[in-house]
Amino acid sequence: MSLSIFLITDTVMTPSVRLQEMIRVIRSARTQGEERGIIQRECADIRSQFRQGDNGERSHSLAKLLYVHMLGYPAHFGQMECVRLIASPRYSEKRIGYLGAMMLLDEKQDASLLITNSIKNDLSHSSQYVQSLALCTLACMGSAEMCRDLAPEIERLLRASHSYIKKKATLCAVHIIRKVPELAELFTPSARTLLSEKNHGVLHGAVVLITELCERNPDTLVQFRKAVPELVQIMKGLVTSSYSPEHNVAGISDPFLQVRILRLLRILGHNNDTASDAMNDLLAQVATNTDSSKTAGSAVLYETVLTIMDINSESGLRVLAVNILGRFLLNNDRNIRYISMTSLQKIVQTDHNAVQRHRGTIVDCLKDQDTSVKRRALELSLALVSAVNIRSMMKELLIFLSVCPPELRSQTASGIFNAAERYSPSKRWHIDTILHVLTTAGGDVRDETVPNLIQLITTASELHCYTVHKLYRALIKDIAQQSLVQVACWCIGEYGDLLLKGECEEIEPVQVTEDDILDALETVLQSHMSSPATRGFALTATMKLSTRITDNVDRIRSIVSIYGSCIDLELQQRAVEYNALFKKYDHMRAAVLERMPVMDKNSPGHTNGDTSGEIKEPDTSKPKPVEAGLLSEPASQVIITGYSEMQKHCCVYVHVVPTVSVYEKNGLSLKIQCDKQTETEVTVTLIASNSTQNDITNFTLQAAVPKSVQLQMKAPSGNVIPAHGLGQVTQTVLLNNPNKASLPCFRFVQLSFLLN
Question: Is residue 600 scored above 90 in pLDDT?
Answer without folding.
Answer: no
